[in-house]
Amino acid sequence: MSAYSSKTALEHARRDALAFSLANCIRALSIDAVEAANSGHPGAPMGMADAATVLYKNHLKFDATAPDWPDRDRVVLSNGHASAMLYSLLHLTGYEDMTKEQLKNFRQKGAITAGHPEYGHAKGIETTTGPLGQGIASAVGMALAEQIMAKDFGPDLVDHHTYVFMGDGCLEEGIGQEAISLAGHLGLGKLIVLYDDNGITIDGPTSVSFSDNIPKRLSACGWHVQSCDGHDAASIDAALTLAKATTDKPSLIAMKTVIGLGSPNKAGTESCHGSPLGAQEAAAAKAALDWTAEPFEIPGNLLQEWRIIGSKGKEVRMAWESRLAQSDEALQAEFLRRTARTLPAEFKAAVADARKALFDKPQKVATRKASQMALEALAPVLPELIGGSADLTGSNLTRVPALDSQFKRGEPGRYIGYGVREFAMAAAMNGMMAHGGIIPYGGTFMVFSDYARNGIRLSALMGIGTIYVMTHDSIGLGEDGPTHQPVEHLASLRAMPNLLTFRPADALETLECWELAIRNRNRPSLLALSRQAVPQLRLEESGQNLAARGAYILRQVGDGERALTLLATGTEVSLALEAAEKLTKDKGIAVAVVSMPSWELFKEQDADYRANVLGTCPRIAVEAAAKFGWATFVGDEDNVIGMDSFGASAPAEELYETFGITSDAIIARAKALLGL
Amino acid sequence: MSAYSSKTALEHARRDALAFSLANCIRALSIDAVEAANSGHPGAPMGMADAATVLYKNHLKFDATAPDWPDRDRVVLSNGHASAMLYSLLHLTGYEDMTKEQLKNFRQKGAITAGHPEYGHAKGIETTTGPLGQGIASAVGMALAEQIMAKDFGPDLVDHHTYVFMGDGCLEEGIGQEAISLAGHLGLGKLIVLYDDNGITIDGPTSVSFSDNIPKRLSACGWHVQSCDGHDAASIDAALTLAKATTDKPSLIAMKTVIGLGSPNKAGTESCHGSPLGAQEAAAAKAALDWTAEPFEIPGNLLQEWRIIGSKGKEVRMAWESRLAQSDEALQAEFLRRTARTLPAEFKAAVADARKALFDKPQKVATRKASQMALEALAPVLPELIGGSADLTGSNLTRVPALDSQFKRGEPGRYIGYGVREFAMAAAMNGMMAHGGIIPYGGTFMVFSDYARNGIRLSALMGIGTIYVMTHDSIGLGEDGPTHQPVEHLASLRAMPNLLTFRPADALETLECWELAIRNRNRPSLLALSRQAVPQLRLEESGQNLAARGAYILRQVGDGERALTLLATGTEVSLALEAAEKLTKDKGIAVAVVSMPSWELFKEQDADYRANVLGTCPRIAVEAAAKFGWATFVGDEDNVIGMDSFGASAPAEELYETFGITSDAIIARAKALLGL
């Protein structure tokens, strides 16, 4: 049981009669939606309804009739299981697509009212939440984006807050702390978090597993911290007012609440967290709340009040529209371009120039270095590009002159030092993408994609173009050893739907992959880049971005009919080429070497193209990574020259020998396969 | 630059002449090892050498000649990049296998001195570290294990501390906070953390990305916090003494240090973090430290001092040995059994009884429920089994009567409420495994294996038998939607070397997989378990654990030569069976249905067995997960009835229809494939 009794809380909620009635609209709809679905989480919506009412009624800058207004305040429901509250709010305030029918179809097939808020399902869902901690971390990204956009376009066009609802789970998850620490460090004053301190977790009272002093902990991380009565409208309002007035620190408002407020027998207990109240208790709760309307019905006067709340931002928005219309023409165009997520006209030429430079003067460099070169060429024409690294800038080579301004407290810049916080980096980048106006990329060692993995997943699930720069992409990392050498990561990332995993073979392909990553604004890209140098393999301009096909015949070595196809990616393409040349020389056979920077894009090509690239002769794959998955191209894992185990600590060249990823091994397998 | 000047720090280090000289042995060896490798991290060992000296000299309970002594204090180097310090300490104190030759071969092929400490490479490496934050989280597991073992065997046999060295990175990583929060909540008084507060991170001063007030933050999490001068032996000693005297809270000692202390030009800067000092600076550093010995040489008197430190625990250990020898015979035998990681004699019978019960009365249950039933049967004979869940006990069904005692502050129990901290749960379980005497398992939703992923990887890399209970293993999760539905997870886990991924088909297979998970003490197991019920498919005792073969012919439906093989796992095996029966009925063909609970174990079978199971006829795979990887068994992903996308929010049965994972889809594919 929460220390805050349900009875007292209800009395406090009643102090402001209108606010109480409005909050009961949220409670009733949430109860109804969960009952109709016979699944869901009624407790959190019922507990947070009073705070949500005050936020939307008195503070939130939004216009339900123009949900895409770029300067709206953002609301993130980090405790995404409270989705019924968000849907109820969107319905009540008049978001057009959030109909009553949708509430009735909560959690059903085809409805926009999914179990957890899904980005893109409905206007007003600012980001996908549910996996705990990622909402607050994405909100940090939104707050970063707001500062960057405000710097670029001025406070007349960009000046909004990011509000977050958050529960205990987000504070228990490590990523929550990463986000809190980063936000405190950077003093994100427009980030305001409402912490639903209800003392209840799935397994029981939070005291089962959690006893942090949250106000003290966040204060230690540079936050402005307040406590308030989460059911007293005046208390909530005062806290929000003071939070908004505090501009140099992010704000936490720790709201003492009762989960499931109104439910006579379940309020204040875990039993109303993740299950419907049940018909009887639902009725009892409505009675306790003096709610007499039919399920999904909102009394006309209350609906009218809510609709006033939903449109109260209209004037502010129209004033903003005229400021935009009256602003400098170039600024206006640029603002519209960036918020529409279209690339600048100059991008194409910048790519062409960078290609030309590589053909004029081929480069033998590590692909991480090639990535930096690509960024040097492209960043100057992409003011929306925001870089960063999880404390590995010098290794990831993610910093370039155009992005050399470090994002500091009160001083937005184009390069973000995320610290040793890979997961928060991923989620913050997702938040920047969702916010709009920004193309974020961030670097770490590829092995630590593990730490950020569910953030990458959310990029893919949301369908947003977050870019991951993952260097040191194999045992080629060398001496740091197996903890730092990715092995299974390529396979595990390729298995993820809707993610473009790129592993370029040389400087030119790296540039091509970067072009693709930037062009793909509706799905994330991950670039797997090498520590070690590779020669440039393509020396003549074909006029085409060949990486865009996912795989292509880089070279056919030898004359006559193709006897063997070698498929390879990244640093192993040059190894495959070496083997092909030896095989041709020794055995007189023709060997096609296929570079395969992206499986996903290759699978999207038409059947003829794929058949032509793969050929009908035997195939061998070469990749310094787990063999898992390659059978789809080479039939049998025996035809993969790859890794069967974790790596080891030694110089890179020795590891390639040790693990048998050599041209000799390719040749031996080819001879066995072809009976030579 | 650190606020603490290198000059002052050096003066403080000199206050205790002997301690300074001893610390310089660590510094010199670390410098030499990194120089010889021409790669590595000299800065942290040089900065922490003074503290390490005081710890080993005055506090640490250990005996270098008996490194496996179960009651030794544990030392975890959470900032694993400081590995040279640990290797130096092991060499200096006389661990037999840590020879001078090994130090000279730091980071080289075949050496036990890997870039980061690798569990199993050498005695005295208590766990693998390097991926930041996991060391401290594993240390929390060790401290938990110590309390549990002390409760089971009494303080005469179990009474030791866990010491951790930790840098800023571990405090920036979210998992660090998860571990801190859990340790504070449970009041792990014998956990003592030495925080190397050197103010430097890879990208520069920590102020670039980190400004938490660490003492305040940890104090908010229930820690006993002290600050000390990390170069003043007396200051360090006093802090350690007080930390040991504080038994109701874990202790943080924030040591103000200078990275690379002694290096005249690089101390206090990031330049000595991850690169060799270089010959010139190495010489200058040695000069500044009055160090005149040749590389890798330790003056005889100092080596003697260190060897005294290394053997000072001998008497204490021998006293412990006699206490063990004199203890109750059964207790002694049980202690030896558990620390030797052998299973009790009763285990076999418990498995047999549980099997019999299922054959006597077949069960139609969700495999998560079957998992609970297996635990109910096996836990009573396995006192080393320690359960837990990341706040999803009621969903994971991880709690059973034998483990019903909740681990509380000051009151060790057999069930741990890890809170919403999946990653710390994984790492803590690894720590328990590494500590010895415990078989840990922990549950969460399978999709959140993402959050814990690098912890699972470390289980696999370390070769330890941590058990992961991952429920809600597919779109069968239903209404919670795509954020909560694993899709790519099976593939991504199967791609990981040395991990046993199990997906049992029914109650019996679940029991068999549990048996295998418990028997496999040298590699981790992950059980993917369903939310939804499945019928029991095997109804007659074969006398064999068939899951141990990884895959087996569950049933051949129809007469005559096998025309088709259906491979399936988990909840889809019954679907495959249904399709097989329809196909036989409609088309008169014989169809073999293969249940494939573990790809890894199947791949370990001999070729004949594999060929017999797979058959020579066409094959189709059925699994409600990404198709990725299945081509290795069925040639073409078109022959996989699986997922091409993320899931959706709706009732489970509807999702199976929506995503085409139905017996009709299997039949349609079979007809196309066989030309029927």
UniProtKB/TrEMBL annotation, chains A, B:
Name the Gene3D superfamilies for this protein. Answer: 3.40.50.920, 3.40.50.970
CDD domains, alphabetically? TPP_PYR_DXS_TK_like, TPP_TK
Q: Which GO terms describe its cellular component?
A: cytosol
- Tell me the enzyme class: transferase
Which Pfam families would you find in this protein's record?
Answer: Transket_pyr, Transketolase_C_1, Transketolase_N
* Cofactor(s) this protein cannot do without: Mg(2+); Ca(2+); Mn(2+); Co(2+)
Residues binding thiamine diphosphate = H81, G130, P131, L132, G169, N198, H273, F448
Q: Where is this site: Important for catalytic activity?
A: H41, H273
Q: Which NCBIfam families match?
A: tktlase_bact
From the Swiss-Prot or TrEMBL record, give the protein name.
Answer: Transketolase
